[in-house]
Amino acid sequence: MLEKALTGSRSYWSWIFVLLVIIGAGVACWFWQFHEGLTITGLSRDVVWGFYIAQFTFLVGVAASAVMVVLPYYLHDYKAFGKMTILGEFLAIPAVIMCMLFIFVDMGMPNRILNVFLHPSPHSMMFWDTIALGGYLLLNIIISHWTLSAERREEPPPRWLKPIILLSIPWAVSIHTVTAFLYAGLAARPFWLTAILAPRFLASAFAAGPAILLLLAFFVRRVSTFDPGKKAIDALAKIVTYAMIINVFFVLMELFTALYSDIPEHVTHFQFLFVGLDGDNTLAPWMWVSSVLALVSLVVLINPKTRHNYNWLLFGCVTVVVSLWIDKGLGMVIAGFVPSPLGKVVHYSPTAPELMISLAVYAIGALVLTGLYKIALEVRGQIKHISY
Amino acid sequence: MKSSRRRFLKFVGLSAAGVVGSTGVTRTVRAVSEHEPPASQGKRWAMVIDLRKFSKDDALIDKIISACNTAHNIPDFSDDPKNEVKWIWTEDFETAFHSQEFHFIREDLKDKPTLLLCNHCDNPPCTRVCPTEATWKRESDGVVMMDWHRCIGCRYCVVACPYGSRSFNWKNPRTASNLANPPSTYPTRMRGVVEKCTFCDERLARGQQPACVEACSNDEMVFGDLNDPGSKVRQILAEHLAIRRKPELGTQPEIYYIVEDPRTLQEVAPAVEVFEEEGGHA
Q1: B170–A37: do the CB atoms touch at under 8 Å?
Q2: What top-level class would CATH report for the domain A2-379?
Q3: What whole-number distance in Å separates Cα of residue B30 and Cα of residue B35?
Q4: Domain range for residue B135?
Q5: pTM for the predicted model, two decimal places
Q6: What is the ipTM score, two decimals?
Q7: What is the pLDDT of residues A272-305, one digit of tens each?
């Protein structure tokens, strides 16, 4: 089946070429980082994790969100998602791969990565996260491979696959829960020490992930004869809407507890995020943009008139993705370190090589996604060979 | 309190793990409570730092810090704080204890240089999060150990430490210009691993005191075994009001700080005298 990704039009190959150039530049930067150490990033003794780990956190959500199409289709026999499920699974695979790569590029001694398996430590949440992510990748590869092969032969998927598909549902929830546990169990970091972190992660994941899926579906509709169907698009739009409402609600819960209790070590992190602390307000403009976009997205998505208009829906999805990316891919991780446990405000911003490496990881994800979507559409004979 | 907490955790773990029936659970509780571990097994190293004996611009502080830095080949990246590696260093008293409030405290106490190092907690959060057992609590004497040949450089322990006691080698420490040539016998580290104070485990193994304690002349830092009721640390802790950093987190730090003698605190004027007299010895 993989051979289907190796033939394509001129624009297909130019896109692949662009991605490969970005990947090449990123890999070069990574070798530089491997040689010099992580000193070439903006990270420091006080801000220990930054852009890499934040992207990892955001992408775990994208990976987990496949469950939002898999669950209605397989558990509730919601037929309208028939065409959407493979796109969801084929989004989850590159998302998990990117998660793993972001962890890998963040490691000081990547050559020792096998130590995680040679010296397994069940008391560490990182150990469980490795298992959760690895297992989820495997599940999605197995499921999408067998369903697509069956479809190619015009047969129903094998019966033994059903329990594996059902297993993938709680597993998807687990990857983001365990990722939240990485943060939420640390006495040293009051900003993350909140029981609502995992629910919040899941809510934002189930908003951002399906929103990305919708954007991809719209793109696929444009370049192929593939049509996920109006019913599927509308249903997915509703999922994005409700998840975004719940996410905003959870954020407000968090703000209430921190600000009304007025416990300094909980308040200061939000202060840093939204107004700045000790003259460092790097994230404040970002966080305000994120908040405004979240509100705009709610207005656009809750109103049925705009939600049913695909141009508005597209806009709504973009606002959801950008808002949540800022929230999770910038604010959530960095604010945990400012102020530091000693109450110090240390500035962090990613450096050029750090951003280049991150961009390359995204490009690797895009490359895998492109290949997988190409295969899915070819198997279904839905590529528009003339226009594409 | 500590052992009851452990028992509770054990109980929760067992009842969660077991699909044991309710009878099984009650039996577990009884079994655990009947077998109390002996009160003292092995040693429990701890340190008392007597802040009354330090003052600002104290040459002794430099002596203590450089004793550690030289013994352990610690790179000096202080010109670029982003890359800094610190095993023992100072913050002013207010910063060191910033979660505790000392309103209207004398200015010289507020700014007092306070030595900070790994607390060798009894319940360390850093070892709990390590995904490779590269850092662990040594059962025989309570030292929080570090194996930089196993560390994968994920920095989860640095994130989990509430005291900022762990350093990551952002760049190659062997390139630092301050290192003696050849370096001391202690192994140098490489870029990409975490390191921290290990209570000089290499010296403890030879029956010596930690290098920082040895650099002191007048019991400014005292090191000893908390499990030995006759030890000097136990005697000092019995007689003085000593505080620990962030006790509310339940980490049970094993570095104690004597701020002021409660007796002298009552007599304001003599306290100043005592302080000046003892602070000026350096």
Answers
A1: yes
A2: mainly alpha
A3: 9
A4: 45-279
A5: 0.88
A6: 0.92
A7: 999 999 989 999 999 999 999 999 999 999 999 9
